[in-house]
Design brief:
about 260 residues, alpha+beta, OB fold (Dihydrolipoamide Acetyltransferase, E2P), 2 domains, five-stranded mixed barrel
Length: about 260
């Protein structure tokens, strides 16, 4: 019986390895680089001095600024360290259309020596969330498939639902939010989607073309799930008239889904 269980475990592991490798296969023309250290679950420091923020995922935050580490933050960093070590510290980079973020970090997809995509592996194991920020959205489909795998299997972050109801938002930062749409408005600033519970979603004019406008118009009364970085607007003058303290900006349709 013990031998049979070990054989079964081997085949489960083999099936999982094959499935994980299928997410976001390596393209041609990767730029070689050597990793100096792993900063956290989604950021690498290269030996040439560059910092690389991996595209398409958001790992839990490590402890800092008086806050404790978020669940699975240490596990995400340790897993990324393991992936880098298995690759001998050598990786391949696929730089995004937007090459740098506001902190000066290189934005890139990262692949190991065997062709495994690090972002997809972390997402598929439930150690990071899939997130899309335009214009770096070329691998949304395979990253969503990786997250769907983790979500169905209840792995890592998905052991307990991380989705908050709109009225449960208490602080800024990355969040998955569920709520019912109470109003959809459009003005020169873009489209504003109000959720019951003091949360408003914003789609800026420069990314509006990526969205189905008819779908947006019909959202009133519908329950949706959205993800992204929540911002506290309570110190803004317009907050007093708008009434929604929390704002979450959307730059790609994959950031929300109908429930």
């Amino acid at each position: 019986m013990k031998k049979a269980s070990q054989v079964g475990a081997f085949f489960v592991g083999a099936i999982w390895l094959t499935a994980a490798q299928a997410f976001c296969p390596a393209p041609k023309g990767l730029i070689p680089a050597t990793v100096q250290r792993v900063v956290d679950g989604d950021t690498l420091r290269l030996k040439d001095g560059r910092s690389v923020r991996m595209i398409g995922l958001n790992a839990p935050e490590l402890a800092g600024k008086g806050r404790p580490a978020e669940p699975y933050a240490l596990a995400a960093r340790q897993r990324l360290q393991q992936l880098v070590a298995q690759s001998g510290g050598r990786v391949g980079l696929l730089v995004g259309r937007e090459r740098r973020d506001r902190y000066g970090r290189t934005l890139a997809h990262v692949y190991g020596a065997s062709g495994i995509n690090f972002e997809a592996r972390l997402i598929a194991e439930g150690l990071a969330y899939q997130v899309a920020v335009a214009p770096n959205v070329a691998q949304i489909a395979c990253q969503q498939a990786a997250e769907n795998h983790a979500r169905r299997a209840g792995l890592g972050l998905w052991r307990r639902s991380p989705v908050l109801k709109a009225e449960q938002i208490r602080r800024s930062g990355f969040a998955l939010v569920e709520g019912r749409v109470s109003k959809v408005q459009r003005n020169r600033g873009g489209i504003w989607i109000a959720l019951q519970g003091k949360v408003v979603l914003h789609i800026a004019p420069n990314v509006l073309g990526r969205f189905d406008r008819q779908l947006l118009k019909g959202l009133s009364g519908r329950r949706i799930e959205v993800r992204g970085w929540v911002m506290d607007r309570s110190r803004e003058d317009r907050f007093k008239s708008a009434g929604a303290r929390w704002m979450l900006s959307l730059s790609d349709p994959s950031a929300f889904r109908l429930l």
